[in-house]
């Protein structure tokens, strides 16, 4: 990574390398909007990655990467914390809770979203067999049930968001997946956001999607579904080529 030093709070040179369908890039864009930070968005073609992306994230070679001046910050969760540290006065509130315990709880569930929910959704969509995809769907529904309980716990059962009256770290982390969650009936034939099963999380997703910061970047469900069909076609072609 570059060794250049950027002045604290200097938002004049923020650039985000992202991709419209990436829930991880989406969450960073929401955070930047909530913080009121101006930035340049660079759309990456993940099938033909730019030299800038490869140089900025040589380890994982993926989006998102935030460029603050000449300093690249990869990985969405790292970027969210960096935005709080680099721009502490921006936005109506900090992204992460000030209370150490609430901060730890938010980080725990954020790790669950990325470490469990994301992988389960991938298995549900791209599993090699029908059995693997069915198991992935069942696991995804179970994970959302756990997050329903987490919302009741974190919000006190009466607040608008996980963080309270305003969206915070866990809202932004899970909020990156709202576009995919809302499109899943078109993608996988199963309604993931079901008010009958997970009423709190379904209502939360609707509130999050209506945030001005989220409206501007949340992908359209039909566009997500079309992109998912492309991924499925690639999976089928790869499977056929390996036979």
Brief write-up:
By secondary structure, this protein is of the alpha+beta class.
How many domains make up the coordinates? 2
- What's the rounded overall pLDDT mean? 92
User: Main sheet, how many strands, which sense, barrel?
Assistant: 4 strands, mixed
CATH topology (level 3) name of the largest domain: Glutathione S-transferase Yfyf (Class Pi), Chain A, domain 2
SS-based class: alpha+beta
Name the poorly predicted regions. Answer: 1-8
Strand content: 5-15%
State the name of the first-level CATH class of the largest domain: Mainly Alpha
The radius of gyration is: 18 Å
GO cellular component, one term: cytosol
Family: Belongs to the GST superfamily. Tau family.
Organism: Paspalum notatum var. saurae
Protein name: Glutathione S-transferase
Summary tags:
243 residues, alpha+beta, Glutaredoxin, Glutathione S-transferase Yfyf (Class Pi), Chain A, domain 2, 7% strand, GST_C_Tau, Glutathione_S-Trfase
Protein model, in words:
The protein is an alpha+beta fold and 243 residues long. The protein folds into two domains: 14-86, 3-Layer(aba) Sandwich (Glutaredoxin); 100-230, Glutathione S-transferase Yfyf (Class Pi), Chain A, domain 2 (Up-down Bundle), CATH 1.20.1050.10. It contains ten helices and four strands; from the N terminus they run βαβαββαααααααα. It has helices spanning 23-35, 51-56, 76-86, 100-126, 130-155, 169-175, 178-187, 199-209, 212-215, 221-242; strands at residues 14-18, 40-43, 65-68, 71-74. Strands 2-1-3-4 form a four-stranded mixed β-sheet, with helices on one face. A hairpin with a 2-residue loop joins strand 3 (65-68) and strand 4 (71-74). The protein is globular and about 55 Å long. The relative contact order is 0.12.
């Amino acid at each position: 990574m570059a060794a250049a030093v950027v002045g604290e709070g200097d938002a004049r040179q923020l650039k985000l390398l992202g991709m419209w369908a990436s829930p991880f890039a989406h969450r960073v864009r929401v955070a930047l909007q909530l913080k009121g930070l101006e930035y340049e968005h660079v759309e990456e073609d993940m099938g033909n990655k730019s030299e800038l992306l490869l140089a900025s994230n040589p380890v994982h070679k993926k989006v998102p990467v935030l460029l603050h001046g000449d300093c690249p910050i990869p990985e969405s969760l790292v970027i969210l914390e960096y935005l709080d540290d680099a721009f502490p006065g921006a936005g109506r509130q900090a992204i992460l809770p000030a209370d150490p315990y609430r901060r730890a709880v938010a980080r725990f569930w954020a790790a669950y979203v990325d470490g469990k929910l994301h992988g389960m959704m991938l298995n549900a969509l791209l599993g090699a067999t029908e059995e693997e995809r069915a198991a992935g769907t069942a696991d995804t529904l179970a994970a959302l049930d756990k997050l329903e309980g987490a919302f009741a716990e974190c919000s006190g059962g009466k607040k608008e968001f996980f963080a309270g009256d305003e969206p915070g770290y866990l809202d932004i982390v899970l909020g990156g997946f709202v576009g995919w969650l809302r499109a899943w009936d078109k993608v996988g034939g199963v309604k993931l956001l079901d008010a009958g099963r997970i009423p709190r999380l379904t209502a939360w997703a609707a509130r999050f999607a209506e945030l001005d910061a989220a409206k501007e970047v949340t992908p359209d469900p039909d566009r997500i579904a079309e992109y998912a069909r492309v991924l499925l076609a690639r999976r089928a072609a790869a499977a056929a080529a390996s036979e």
